Amino acid sequence: MSLIISRAFVDVIVEQSRSEYPDECCGVILGPVGSGKASRLKAMVNAAHSPTFYEFDPKDLLSLYREVDEQDEEIVVIYHSHTETEAYPSRTDIAYAGEPGAHYVLVSSRKEIAPAIEFRSYRIIDGVVTEEEVSITD
Hints:
- This protein is of the alpha/beta class.
- It has a single domain (2-137), classed as Cytidine Deaminase, domain 2.
- Helices cover 24% and strands 37% of the residues.
- The chain contains 3 helices and 7 strands; from the N terminus they run βαββαβαβββ.
- A 7-stranded mixed sheet has the order 1-7-6-5-4-2-3.
- β6 (118-125) and β7 (128-137) form a beta hairpin.
- The longest helix has 14 residues, at 7-20.
- The protein is globular.
- The chain starts with a strand and ends with a strand.
């Protein structure tokens, strides 16, 4: 398994993680149902406004699901940042991972590696975390 993602999406996610620091940023990338293709990025608000936790606002989430249904799309990627730890799913991330078909992307902007970042992708199914290769396209 691997995630194919455009450089433009990676840049937007990294920029969002830096602009929302010290809070975690979050969002989704949508694509046509059944394609597995990441084609439209939608930044979301971290309703927790927290450096250690993220959650989508319930109204935003409801709106997102309506939009996805109306446009025949699916959630291909769910992303968020870790501001102080490595780009690996936390116990909370694993517990809340409810989209078995999605790629879970984590970007870390922690100080020790700045200005570099970590950009990693996982599948999280029934509590099992599997890292996958990330192919960035131009």
